[in-house]
Amino acid sequence: MTDSNVLMPRDYIQRLLACRRSDTGVVCSMPVGSLPGNFWTELECAFLNTLQARFQYLSESLGWGFAQGKTMLFRRDVVEGGGGIRALAAETAEDAATTKMIRNAGLRVHLVDNPFEQPLGWRSAAEVWARQLRWARLRRISFSWLFLPELVVGSLFPALALALAADAYGIGVAASLAMFLTAWFGAEIVLACVAGWRLSLLLVLALPVRDLLLPILWVAAWLSDDFVWRGNPMTVSRGRHRRRFFGRRQPGFGDRSLEA
User: Fold this and answer.
1) DSSP assignment letter at 84
2) Residue 230 pLDDT class (50, 70, 90 cuts)
3) How much of the chain, in percent, has pLDDT values that exceed 90?
4) Longest Cα separation, the chain
């Protein structure tokens, strides 16, 4: 199952099948942003690639893999044993439902070795913010205990702690912050270069903007359960999501095509 806005190379299926292991329940690929058309989609690349994709691979390496709905290659017997494809509507997002289904079956989510690209093109700041806010609210409702530490994921709080410590010990605050941020974002730049992900001067400028937005995004995710997706008002509230979701179409299926 794959989103229609994912680039599919000729060996798409083979690359997914190559990642199957004996304990695999589903093989997934997160979206990796490419072909941005303006600064705001460069900012989205900063969110998608060296931040979100990095932590998804880290989670998988620790045995806590999470499904991502951009591309999911299922084992049919696992899906049928978990209640069938309709069971993916048990959560507000089908990838969260997939993650829980696979774990309940005693299996694991595995990620493709090299993620498939999603061309981003031109988007407004509001569109990028709305997408990241929707995902943040979905993560909060689906995996609340894992969403809590997202507040301190970026560089803002470590930088503030370093500034306070440098000032207390009489060390140059500006020089300390400059070295710290160079090392912090330099590591992300090296990762993007090695992985073959988007790398540009605008992206380098977008990295600190993203980190400044992360705490604001985290707080905003707690302030409401509602969002708008493709013009449809929806909610992540467990008590209300069926009425709001299924009154029109089922999100997660209406925009997807079955590939195999």
Assistant:
1) -
2) confident
3) 83
4) 63
- CA–CA gap between residue 160 and residue 156 (Å, rounded): 6
Stretch 85-95: mean pLDDT, rounded?
Answer: 89
Closest CA to 113 of 153, 169, 53: 53
Q: Could you tell me the CA-to-CA distances from 207 to 47, 75, 139, 148, 154 in Å, in that order? A: 8, 37, 22, 22, 10
Tokens of 249: 């179409």
Encoded tokens for 62: 């620790």
How many beta carbons lie within 10 A of that of residue 147, not counting itself?
Answer: 18
The Cα–Cα gap between 41 and 52 comes to 15
d(CA 98, CA 216): 29
Tell me the pTM: 0.88
The string over 181-205, giving b where at least 16 C-beta atoms fall within 10 Å of a residue's C-beta and e elsewhere, is beebbeebeeebeebebbbeebbbe
**pLDDT at 7 > cutoff 80:** yes
User: By the 8 A CB rule, do 152 and 107 touch?
Assistant: no
**Token pair of 139 as six digits:** 């993560």
